[in-house]
What does this fold into?
Amino acid sequence: MVPYVAVAITAVILSLVPLWIGDSRTLTGVAVSGLLFACYATAFNLIFGSTDQLFLAVGALAGVGAYTSAITSDRLSLPLPLTIILGMIVAMIISGLFSWIAVRRSLGIIFTGIVTLTFSLAFDNLLLGQRSLTGGETGMVIDAGKGAFFRGQIPPYYVFLTLLIGFLLAYVAIHRSRMGWAFRALRDDQLSAELSGVNVAKYRIYAGAIGGAMLGLSGALWAHVEGFISPATFTFVHVDVQVLVMLVFGGIGTLLGPVVGSAFFTYLGEVLASFSQLRLIVEGVLLIVLFLALPQGVVGAIVIGITRLRERRKGLP
Amino acid sequence: MAVLELVELEKHFGGLPAVDGVTFGFNDGEILAIVGPNGAGKSTLLKTIIGIHPATSGTIRFSGTDITKMSTHRIRKAGIAMVLQTPRIFGSLTVRENVVIGAMFGNPKGVSESDAYEEADEMLAVVGLSSKADLAIDKLNLHEQRYVDLARAIAGRPKLLLLDEVMAGLNDTETASSIELIRRLRDRHGVTVIWVEHVMKAVLSLAERIAVLDFGRLLTSGDPQVVMRDPKVVKAYLGGKALPDA
Amino acid sequence: MTAAILDGLVLGLQFGLLGVGLTIVYGMGGVLNLAYGAMAVASAIVVSVAMRSGLPAVPAVALGILTGAALSLLLNVTIMRPVYRRRGDQRVLLSILLTIGVAFIINGYLVWKLPIEALSLSIGGDAISILGVPMRVGSLLASAITILAGVGLILFFRRTTAGKAVRSVIQDEVGARLCGINPASVRMLIFTLSGAIAGLVAVTRSMTSPVPVSEGFSLTILALLVTVVGGLGSVKGAMLAGLILGVVNALSSFYIGSYITTIVLLVAAALTILLRPSGLFGEYT
Ligand SMILES: Nc1ncnc2c1ncn2[C@@H]1O[C@H](COP(=O)(O)OP(=O)(O)OP(=O)(O)O)[C@@H](O)[C@H]1O
Ligand SMILES: [Mg+2]
It folds into this structure.
């Protein structure tokens, strides 16, 4: 029950944010992008946090979803919901394929990271090169379905808030299911998990595919809500590095770690916006200090603290 | 009837044989001890049977089915479980949760979470750890950790249990309790036990049959008292000196 | 065709040496230094600033290489300490995250203070004809320095006591300890060497194309690819992988051109990893 309550509280807090930032368009934009990153980080948390697969293609997989959806709706005039589902499925297949390859070739953390990183870089180059289709570095404006679906009807903030809450609920549901037991076992000790009958390969691929679908969906929605995408939106430096930092800060493998991490860094970015050059330095210092001080992340440390407190209380007569 | 059959089983590491052409049949319901000097290939043999190491050549048949190429989790579901030489328990889970994993995934039929909990409690009762079910793993001593590992292995009711030196490092009381437990598992639950062990006293009091492995080959097998007095075995085992406990 | 291959070799030599600097650190302690490219750039920028303030080229370059070495040494005695207390995947992961932080700091500082600085060492003189292809003096000098450095490194690992100590630690840390070799001081040596190599590569690279402040990240990625293709921890492998990737790069940009070149390069790297996870040469030196 506790995780669902946590998600509900998160939903309430986040839905109050628009009251706090008011009408400011810039701030709203920042908040929406913060939610997008929370979605990315939650998906990444499922892949990396739950099954130890370091996918350095978070941005690229979101980009796959975004461009698939944008191109099929703009060029082929397919119905908008269908294109979004298409984007999600293509990203899911590619991501599942990564897991399959990593499992088949027994790639460890580093090699999985590097293979997916090469995909990110290649994808970025492909976007830049296929000008006629993607508009190259200038990006593409998505006209299809303008106003018909989201834009103008539901404020983008609530689109992504709904998405995030959906992801968090999915995360909780997965972790309370049989799959969650398998994840816990294989993360703890892969060999013991196999010896207990857990099909480690299968559950890794599930995590990869589900996380990939989440990323594709986030990217596709972003494309249509923003109405504009460019390769820079999905690069390794802009997305993956940030998402990794956010997740680690919040707490790898915790439910709310991704949310706390992205909220913190989004807020920090906003505070440091006026002297943007400092942002990188501050982030770097924070990363090092926090990592050494709180290796389990903020949420991880809180969870451990609460458990200790409970144990101590139980210990009293 | 042989529940497990090995035919010309070989396992090489980088060209060097660790298991070198073993052909053997394990009887249904027996407690068989595999003994042999360090590096004889005992652990490798067990790990090859359960699919942790893929066999280089040869065949493994379990209840008539060829399981040589199966992956470990499928073999486990098919009814073979193993306890490793050093207990490897899920450190972030409680004692009960460890066993739940075995109950949930170690069974060919899908087991629901609540059924798995029920089964886990039953298995913890079998090994006598019910009172420690909610503890974290690191609160347990080696002996108790082995029992958790064992409970996790017998959850899902495997037909065959592979045990690798589960009595190493235990004191006399603990050893006696382990012997009693393994015998009870066989008597009440009908599991076949293949058990690698160095502690001779335990072997002689529990094993019904002994197989001796040396340099990856099966030296001899048969009645414990007879086998352990076989000059061939004495020579392989202790370089000619007499066995201390036998 | 010959021209493309020669260009590829010039580039490949730089790739190779770049990879060597990263690979020795991995071979040594199983850690990755993702601030590697940032350190190379920092060295280049120091050279550039020193020369602008009137220092002659050679001492400026020496200063730059020293900067790389010093930064790397600093890294080793500070944040690498907790990293070495971990094992296996945990160790790699922590090294990745902490050095990303360091890269942020170095990049952030450079972009903040010297946003438009770039090192570009133009070496004068007429082009020299090699196999009928006119080659720029800068390219030749850069290649000569790289080859010298590469040979020097291999000799160092093979012939000198310190080099042998390094190899023994890599093969068997416990055994080396028993022989009286302290792994920690060997690590310090390797880290410093790695930083110096980063600085050197930045300098030689600037003889053929400018090294701007923003280059750090791409240099790290390039080094990572070379390292992995060559086999993590292998000096010879990194050199060879660098050459192969350099030639692949030049040939595909010559025949196919445009953005496909980079994709070919990346696919080549990914395929090598998948087909030979231990790299082209899965052992050290
Ligand atoms: N993963 C492995 N890779 C390479 N060689 C191995 C591996 N596992 C075992 N060996 C080798 O296979 C041989 C048999 O080892 P094994 O562990 O099976 O012996 P054992 O009979 O269980 O010994 P002990 O009584 O010490 O446990 C040894 O020579 C060992 O070095
Ligand atoms: Mg053994």
Chains B and C do not touch (no CB pair under 8 Å). Chain B has a mean pLDDT of 90. The first helix of chain B runs from residue 42 to 49. Residues 87-157 of chain B form one domain.
